[in-house]
């Protein structure tokens, strides 16, 4: 599950509007999908996930949080893109090594927002290069590492979360 400290930043970069159509690629447990659905109550969120266990968690979380505007698309991106309408926001939390294909084929409106999360330098570098190659604009990259402080008797001990890259951009004229 994407940690709350990271979800907040991803969703801020996505700039979700109430009527947006959103695709969450590599949705995992659906934590970002659920929050995106709440930010777009008049829109729809498509959660793409290939892992059957994760799909079950998405559906359970959809029910638990009452996200009626969330649609699960079982399978992998870009294989299931034919089932998607044009979207306003694309969040990529997992690409299974298919980031070039995903960015080339995602049905994102011109001016639409893309947010990529990466836990490796290589994926971050690849994402930045692909966005430039595909003529995206307003490309921005940040790296975040959060630390939680856990009480241990009368002291507080640091519990570092793994660092993550968050890359955002807008689809340009020829992307």
What does this structure look like?
The chain has helices spanning 4-14, 31-39, 52-65, 99-105, 121-133, and strands at 21-25, 44-49, 70-74, 87-92, 108-118, 137-144, 147-152, 155-160, 164-170. Helices cover 31% and strands 34% of the residues. The mean pLDDT is 94. The chain has a 7-stranded mixed sheet, with helices on both faces. The chain has 175 residues and is α/β, with parallel strands linked by helices. The chain starts with a helix and ends in a 5-residue tail after the last strand. The chain is built from 5 helices and 9 strands.
Question: What layout of secondary structure does this protein have?
Answer:
Blueprint lengths: L3 H11 L6 E5 L5 H9 L4 E6 L2 H14 L4 E5 L12 E6 L6 H7 L2 E11 L2 H13 L3 E8 L2 E6 L2 E6 L3 E7 L5
Parallel strand pairs: 1-2, 1-4, 2-3, 4-5
Antiparallel strand pairs: 5-9, 6-9, 7-8
What keyword list fits this structure?
alpha/beta; 7-stranded mixed beta sheet; two-stranded antiparallel ribbon; 31% helix
């Amino acid at each position: 599950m994407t940690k709350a400290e990271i979800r907040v930043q991803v969703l801020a970069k996505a700039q979700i509007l109430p009527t947006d159509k959103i695709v969450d690629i590599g949705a995992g447990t659906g934590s970002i999908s659920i929050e995106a659905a709440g930010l777009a109550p008049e829109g729809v969120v498509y959660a793409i996930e290939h892992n059957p266990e994760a799909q079950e968690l998405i559906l359970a979380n959809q029910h638990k949080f009452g996200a009626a505007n969330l649609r699960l698309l079982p399978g992998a991106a870009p294989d299931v893109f034919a089932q998607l309408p044009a979207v306003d926001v694309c969040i990529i939390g997992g690409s299974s090594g298919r980031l070039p294909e995903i960015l080339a084929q995602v049905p994102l409106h011109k001016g639409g927002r893309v947010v990529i999360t990466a836990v490796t330098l290589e994926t971050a570098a690849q994402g930045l290069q692909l966005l430039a190659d595909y003529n995206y604009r307003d490309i921005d990259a940040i790296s975040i590492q959060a630390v939680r402080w856990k009480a241990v008797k009368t002291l507080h001990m640091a519990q570092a979360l793994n660092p993550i890259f968050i890359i955002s951009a807008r689809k340009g004229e020829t992307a």
